[in-house]
Amino acid sequence: MSVIPRRIKVGLELTSKCNLRCGMCPLPVLRRPYEDMAWPLVEKAEREIHGLGLKLKWLHEMGEPLLYSRIDDAIRLFPEASVSTNGLVLTEAVGAKLLASPLKRLRICVDSINPDVYPHIRTGGDFEQLVDLTRKFLRQAKGHPLRIEIQKMRSRLTLDESVDDFRRLFDLKQYRNARVIERTCEALDVNEETDLHGKFYGCVQGAFFTWVVIFADGRVTHCCYDAHGDQVMGDLKTQTLEEIVKSDRMLQMKAAFEARDFSQLPRCGECFKHGGESHAFNDVLTRVQNLPGVAKDVVRKVLDIRYR
Q: Which of 9, 103, 113, 252 is in the most buried spot, having the most CB atoms within 10 Å?
């Protein structure tokens, strides 16, 4: 299997540990250890990813990346990568480390500005603390080239909240490097319809091989929804990344996916269990995934009609 760098997105899980147990997240029942990635493995991941001409998209998968003690050193290895955080460990000291690094984009997942709704989304979080830390970081980063995204979640619980509400709460008119983005809550563990997420009717990535995700323990999966590692392709501790993506295992998994044989693909089977998927729809999603960032955001927002 050939590696086409422009079509593959890579995620690196620095840690699977988290300070929250969110309502939409499988982390409370994660079927793998809560652990940090050993630093030599981070360095190997950098050599492997960049050696294949790939770029890292996110410095996280399941855990809270700001809990990783060498987060700033990891950013220096992967200056192209973005970081997403729940914001509750974004202290002044952590903020200083981020601002002294080459980080270009930080996403703060506020999700809801309703103090009664927020705990249902970010279970274990302190809403007032989050607002305070976010405001302080915005002041700390004012005038810095770092792009700050304040995430608003679209779900049935947040229908009454608007982008303007978020802008007003954080007084974003005075911070030119900050903006509000909207995202749907992704059903990483269940694909049933809930107040937080809708049913899935096929591959949410649009195609079998658009991601490479390296877990904190070094194992590699092909999908950012494979939180438990049910469809692991290989192990970076004992293999090169090129060996993994060109392995017989990968070819067998790809063939099974194309045949819609999910007997060996339990994670894929979850996304397809409600039926209704078509190759044409997946072709559209594949094209969307390969659009430039801004264009992709617009198209995906149009396609996403679950919470209107």
A: 103
pLDDT at 190 exceeding the cut of 60: no
Give the three-class secondary structure for 57.
Answer: strand
- Please answer whether residues 279 and 159 qualify as being in contact, where contact means their C-beta atoms are separated by less than 8 angstroms: no
Measured CA to CA, the distance from residue 92 to residue 98 in angstroms comes to 10
**Beta-sheet strand order (sheet of 219-221):** 56-58, 9-12, 211-214, 219-221, 232-235
| Residue 158 burial (C-beta neighbours within 10 Å; 0-12, 13-18, 19+) | buried
Asked whether the beta carbons of 180 and 166 are under 8 A apart, the reply is yes
Q: Which residues contact 123 (CB under 8 A, 6 or more apart)?
A: 20, 21, 22, 23
Alpha carbons 244 and 186: distance in angstroms, whole number:
27
The least confident of 72-76, 160-164, 187-191 is: 187-191
Is 57 within 8 Å of 160 (Cβ atoms)?
no
Q: What is the pLDDT of residues 114-149, one digit of tens each?
A: 999 999 899 999 999 999 999 999 999 999 999 999
Helix (H) or strand (E) holding 61: none
Q: How many Cβ atoms from other residues are within 10 Å of residue 242's Cβ?
A: 12
As a whole number of angstroms, the distance between CA 273 and CA 255 comes to 19
CA 20 to chain centre: 16
**Alpha carbon distance 250, 51 (integer Å):** 20
CB-neighbour burial class of residue 67 (10 A; exposed 0-12, middle 13-18, buried 19+)? middle
**Residue 80 CB coordination number (10 Å):** 16
